[in-house]
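thread: overnight batch results

M.L. [08:02]
morning all. the overnight job finished for the chain we discussed friday. pasting input first so we're all looking at the same thing
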Amino acid sequence: TRKGRLGHGLLALLLLALGSSSLSFSSISLKRSQARLEVKSWNPGDEPEDADKDAKEITYQICQSGRKRNFLAAKEAFEEAEVKDAIMYSAIIGAAANCKEFDEGMAYFEEIQSSSLEAGDSVYSATLKLLGIQGNYEEASRIWQQMVDTGLLKRSSRQQGCLTGLLNAAASAGDVELVLKDMDAAQATGVELNPSHFGCLLKACRQSRDLENAEKALKRMRTASIPANIIHYTIYMGACARFVADEQPGHAAAVELEQKVLSMMDEDMVKPNDYFLEERILLHLGIASLRDWLYDEDAPRPGDAELQGAAQVLEEAIADNIRLTLGLRELRERLPAL
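M.L. [08:03]
and the structure it wrote out:
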């Protein structure tokens, strides 16, 4: 196997940006293995002079196709390679994650594990990202533990990215306690927590409408000197909006939650953007989804206080030059009639 190639080091960084078929990944892997019994690879020092250049170009094509959500093109580029290495497998698994081709991605993971190649941390990182997007915590937890047991996690420079995949899988189910448990366990093994990990925790809080733990998460970030950004506060506002939509505590309670979020944002010196604005409008209207409400004629009409609050926030945002999402532009057109 090829190790330590500097050219592939740069390509590995691209994989961090990459993020279903009806067949199971095991059946896909079986069909692929029937066509190619083993993965070819060069032994160090034996490869042709142009081998590394060709591999880098193909890996780049796979990454780009994944970013464009074109998994067919990514697969075609992968299959073009006569010789495949671990970085190339990382790229195709990352492309599968981006394109939500989960079974295909896991089939590639199985394939490299059964080959003569060493599945390094770049492969595990891409696979955990895929499972995080899928929300497959059971499989993500198994692979994470495999990294821990083999010592790969301790040696890896991608510890934080791997942990993000694991936490994202737990967050998709809204399991706040599970996310917290895995964060604390990882931190105890030496993994340094970063903003993405707290983003997963806040995502779990939004899913479960857990406003108490959402607030605690942001305060824990401050204590750890981890800066919160607009993504964290958008998720927090989203949690508040969904809580209000579910519980219907009244507009006054919604405004009280809004002011708490805005006050914390101000303390953290975070500025709002269009996505935050949409969540804030949802909070005022007492609904969970703006698009569903706009196109559902049977959806209940918010009261005058809710509509006036939303209209005021909308106009203030326009005055502050915050661009509007498509849904907010449509809402603004309809507000006079409502």
